[in-house]
Amino acid sequence: VSMGRTLVELFYDVVSPYSWLGFEVLCRYQHIWNIDLRFRPAFLGGIMQATGNKPPAMLPKRAEYMLKDIKRMAKYYQVPVQISEDDFQRVLGTGTLGAMRFITAIDMTQPRYLEPLSREFWIRFWSQHEDISQPENILAVARQAGLSSELAQKLLEMISSPAVKNRLRETTEEAIKYGAFGMPAVVAHFNAEPHLFFGSDRLELLGSVIGE
Protein backbone atom coordinates (compact mmCIF):
# COMPACT_ATOMS: atom_id res chain seq x y z
CA VAL A 1 0.00 0.00 0.00
CA SER A 2 1.45 3.34 -0.98
CA MET A 3 1.73 6.14 1.59
CA GLY A 4 -1.56 7.42 2.86
CA ARG A 5 -3.67 5.07 0.75
CA THR A 6 -6.27 2.98 2.53
CA LEU A 7 -6.19 -0.73 1.72
CA VAL A 8 -9.72 -1.88 0.86
CA GLU A 9 -10.28 -5.61 0.39
CA LEU A 10 -13.35 -6.86 -1.44
CA PHE A 11 -14.27 -10.47 -0.65
CA TYR A 12 -16.70 -11.71 -3.31
CA ASP A 13 -18.19 -14.71 -5.08
CA VAL A 14 -19.70 -14.43 -8.58
CA VAL A 15 -22.83 -16.25 -7.39
CA SER A 16 -23.78 -13.04 -5.55
CA PRO A 17 -25.47 -10.23 -7.53
CA TYR A 18 -24.91 -7.76 -4.67
CA SER A 19 -21.19 -8.57 -4.93
CA TRP A 20 -21.31 -7.52 -8.59
CA LEU A 21 -22.89 -4.19 -7.67
CA GLY A 22 -20.32 -3.57 -4.93
CA PHE A 23 -17.48 -4.61 -7.25
CA GLU A 24 -18.49 -2.16 -10.00
CA VAL A 25 -18.96 0.75 -7.58
CA LEU A 26 -15.55 0.13 -5.97
CA CYS A 27 -13.93 -0.23 -9.42
CA ARG A 28 -15.26 3.26 -10.26
CA TYR A 29 -14.21 4.77 -6.96
CA GLN A 30 -10.73 3.26 -6.79
CA HIS A 31 -9.45 6.18 -8.89
CA ILE A 32 -11.50 8.84 -7.09
CA TRP A 33 -10.90 7.82 -3.50
CA ASN A 34 -7.44 7.40 -2.07
CA ILE A 35 -7.74 3.62 -1.82
CA ASP A 36 -5.72 0.61 -2.81
CA LEU A 37 -8.44 -1.81 -3.89
CA ARG A 38 -7.67 -5.50 -3.60
CA PHE A 39 -9.99 -8.16 -5.01
CA ARG A 40 -10.24 -11.25 -2.79
CA PRO A 41 -12.11 -14.09 -4.53
CA ALA A 42 -13.66 -16.29 -1.82
CA PHE A 43 -16.36 -18.98 -1.58
CA LEU A 44 -19.77 -17.87 -0.36
CA GLY A 45 -20.88 -21.46 0.33
CA GLY A 46 -18.03 -21.81 2.83
CA ILE A 47 -18.96 -18.56 4.59
CA MET A 48 -22.64 -19.55 4.80
CA GLN A 49 -21.74 -22.93 6.23
CA ALA A 50 -19.28 -21.59 8.79
CA THR A 51 -21.65 -18.89 10.06
CA GLY A 52 -24.98 -20.73 9.81
CA ASN A 53 -26.30 -18.16 7.33
CA LYS A 54 -28.84 -19.00 4.60
CA PRO A 55 -29.39 -17.46 1.16
CA PRO A 56 -31.74 -14.45 1.54
CA ALA A 57 -34.05 -15.87 -1.14
CA MET A 58 -34.96 -18.78 1.18
CA LEU A 59 -37.27 -16.38 3.02
CA PRO A 60 -40.22 -15.69 0.69
CA LYS A 61 -40.83 -12.10 1.80
CA ARG A 62 -37.16 -11.33 1.53
CA ALA A 63 -36.96 -12.95 -1.92
CA GLU A 64 -39.86 -10.75 -3.04
CA TYR A 65 -38.07 -7.63 -1.81
CA MET A 66 -34.74 -8.74 -3.25
CA LEU A 67 -36.18 -8.92 -6.78
CA LYS A 68 -37.27 -5.27 -6.59
CA ASP A 69 -34.15 -4.19 -4.75
CA ILE A 70 -31.69 -5.66 -7.25
CA LYS A 71 -33.66 -4.23 -10.19
CA ARG A 72 -33.56 -0.76 -8.62
CA MET A 73 -29.87 -1.00 -7.77
CA ALA A 74 -28.98 -2.33 -11.23
CA LYS A 75 -30.71 0.66 -12.78
CA TYR A 76 -29.20 3.16 -10.34
CA TYR A 77 -25.63 1.87 -10.66
CA GLN A 78 -25.96 1.03 -14.38
CA VAL A 79 -24.88 -2.58 -13.90
CA PRO A 80 -26.67 -5.07 -16.21
CA VAL A 81 -27.90 -7.51 -13.54
CA GLN A 82 -31.05 -9.21 -14.85
CA ILE A 83 -33.04 -10.96 -12.16
CA SER A 84 -36.31 -12.89 -12.08
CA GLU A 85 -37.94 -15.34 -9.69
CA ASP A 86 -36.55 -18.31 -11.63
CA ASP A 87 -33.06 -17.14 -10.77
CA PHE A 88 -33.38 -18.13 -7.13
CA GLN A 89 -33.80 -21.81 -8.07
CA ARG A 90 -31.14 -21.54 -10.76
CA VAL A 91 -28.63 -20.06 -8.32
CA LEU A 92 -29.33 -22.62 -5.61
CA GLY A 93 -28.74 -25.34 -8.19
CA THR A 94 -25.44 -23.96 -9.52
CA GLY A 95 -22.13 -24.45 -7.80
CA THR A 96 -19.59 -21.67 -8.24
CA LEU A 97 -16.71 -23.54 -6.60
CA GLY A 98 -15.08 -24.29 -9.98
CA ALA A 99 -15.52 -20.71 -11.16
CA MET A 100 -14.11 -19.28 -7.92
CA ARG A 101 -11.14 -21.65 -8.10
CA PHE A 102 -10.55 -20.54 -11.69
CA ILE A 103 -10.66 -16.89 -10.59
CA THR A 104 -8.31 -17.76 -7.71
CA ALA A 105 -5.90 -19.38 -10.17
CA ILE A 106 -5.81 -16.18 -12.26
CA ASP A 107 -5.23 -14.15 -9.09
CA MET A 108 -2.22 -16.36 -8.31
CA THR A 109 -0.73 -16.28 -11.82
CA GLN A 110 -1.97 -13.28 -13.88
CA PRO A 111 -3.66 -10.86 -11.46
CA ARG A 112 -4.07 -8.18 -14.14
CA TYR A 113 -6.91 -10.30 -15.55
CA LEU A 114 -8.69 -10.59 -12.21
CA GLU A 115 -11.04 -7.62 -12.73
CA PRO A 116 -12.13 -8.37 -16.34
CA LEU A 117 -12.42 -12.12 -15.68
CA SER A 118 -14.60 -11.66 -12.58
CA ARG A 119 -16.81 -9.22 -14.48
CA GLU A 120 -17.27 -11.66 -17.36
CA PHE A 121 -18.36 -14.41 -14.95
CA TRP A 122 -21.03 -12.08 -13.51
CA ILE A 123 -22.16 -11.01 -16.99
CA ARG A 124 -22.52 -14.60 -18.13
CA PHE A 125 -24.30 -15.71 -14.95
CA TRP A 126 -26.37 -12.65 -14.03
CA SER A 127 -26.92 -10.96 -17.42
CA GLN A 128 -27.00 -13.84 -19.87
CA HIS A 129 -28.32 -16.43 -17.40
CA GLU A 130 -25.84 -19.07 -18.57
CA ASP A 131 -24.31 -21.84 -16.55
CA ILE A 132 -20.82 -21.12 -15.23
CA SER A 133 -20.17 -24.46 -13.56
CA GLN A 134 -19.17 -26.41 -16.71
CA PRO A 135 -15.55 -26.39 -17.92
CA GLU A 136 -16.47 -25.38 -21.49
CA ASN A 137 -18.44 -22.39 -20.15
CA ILE A 138 -15.56 -21.39 -17.88
CA LEU A 139 -13.28 -21.42 -20.95
CA ALA A 140 -15.79 -19.29 -22.89
CA VAL A 141 -15.81 -16.73 -20.05
CA ALA A 142 -11.99 -16.69 -20.06
CA ARG A 143 -12.00 -16.02 -23.83
CA GLN A 144 -14.40 -13.11 -23.34
CA ALA A 145 -12.06 -11.67 -20.73
CA GLY A 146 -9.19 -11.70 -23.21
CA LEU A 147 -7.26 -14.76 -22.00
CA SER A 148 -5.47 -16.90 -24.57
CA SER A 149 -6.79 -20.43 -24.92
CA GLU A 150 -3.41 -21.77 -23.72
CA LEU A 151 -3.61 -19.74 -20.51
CA ALA A 152 -7.29 -20.62 -19.96
CA GLN A 153 -6.54 -24.31 -20.43
CA LYS A 154 -3.61 -24.11 -17.98
CA LEU A 155 -5.81 -22.40 -15.36
CA LEU A 156 -8.53 -25.00 -15.84
CA GLU A 157 -5.99 -27.69 -15.00
CA MET A 158 -4.89 -25.70 -11.95
CA ILE A 159 -8.34 -25.65 -10.34
CA SER A 160 -7.94 -29.18 -9.03
CA SER A 161 -4.49 -28.44 -7.56
CA PRO A 162 -3.99 -28.28 -3.78
CA ALA A 163 -2.36 -24.83 -4.12
CA VAL A 164 -5.49 -23.26 -5.65
CA LYS A 165 -7.91 -25.11 -3.34
CA ASN A 166 -5.92 -24.03 -0.28
CA ARG A 167 -5.67 -20.43 -1.43
CA LEU A 168 -9.45 -20.18 -1.93
CA ARG A 169 -10.07 -21.83 1.43
CA GLU A 170 -7.61 -19.49 3.18
CA THR A 171 -9.17 -16.40 1.61
CA THR A 172 -12.63 -17.59 2.68
CA GLU A 173 -11.38 -18.20 6.23
CA GLU A 174 -9.80 -14.76 6.28
CA ALA A 175 -13.15 -13.19 5.39
CA ILE A 176 -14.79 -15.13 8.24
CA LYS A 177 -12.05 -13.98 10.63
CA TYR A 178 -12.90 -10.36 9.76
CA GLY A 179 -16.50 -11.13 10.70
CA ALA A 180 -18.04 -11.82 7.28
CA PHE A 181 -21.29 -13.80 7.21
CA GLY A 182 -22.27 -13.09 3.59
CA MET A 183 -21.09 -11.21 0.51
CA PRO A 184 -19.86 -8.79 -0.56
CA ALA A 185 -17.69 -8.30 2.51
CA VAL A 186 -15.57 -5.16 2.23
CA VAL A 187 -12.75 -4.62 4.70
CA ALA A 188 -11.11 -1.19 4.96
CA HIS A 189 -7.83 -1.05 6.86
CA PHE A 190 -7.90 2.39 8.45
CA ASN A 191 -6.14 3.74 11.55
CA ALA A 192 -4.42 0.38 11.99
CA GLU A 193 -7.65 -1.57 12.31
CA PRO A 194 -9.95 -3.45 9.93
CA HIS A 195 -13.48 -2.10 9.39
CA LEU A 196 -15.96 -4.61 7.92
CA PHE A 197 -18.85 -3.44 5.73
CA PHE A 198 -21.42 -5.95 4.51
CA GLY A 199 -23.30 -5.47 1.26
CA SER A 200 -23.14 -3.07 -1.66
CA ASP A 201 -25.26 -0.41 0.04
CA ARG A 202 -22.72 0.58 2.71
CA LEU A 203 -20.12 2.12 0.45
CA GLU A 204 -20.97 5.75 1.32
CA LEU A 205 -20.44 4.76 4.94
CA LEU A 206 -17.11 3.20 4.04
CA GLY A 207 -16.12 6.46 2.33
CA SER A 208 -17.08 8.41 5.42
CA VAL A 209 -15.12 6.14 7.79
CA ILE A 210 -11.91 6.46 5.73
CA GLY A 211 -12.29 10.23 5.42
CA GLU A 212 -13.50 10.37 1.81
TrEMBL record:
It comes from the Eukaryota. Coiled coil: none annotated. One of its GO terms (biological process) is glutathione metabolic process. One of its GO terms (cellular component) is peroxisome. Residues 8-209 form the DSBA-like thioredoxin domain. Keywords: Transferase. CDD domains: DsbA_GSTK (cd03021). Gene3D superfamilies: Glutaredoxin. The keyword Zinc does not apply. One of its GO terms (molecular function) is glutathione transferase activity. PANTHER family: GLUTATHIONE S-TRANSFERASE KAPPA, GLUTATHIONE S-TRANSFERASE KAPPA 1. Belongs to the GST superfamily. Kappa family. This is Glutathione S-transferase kappa 1. The gene is GSTK1.
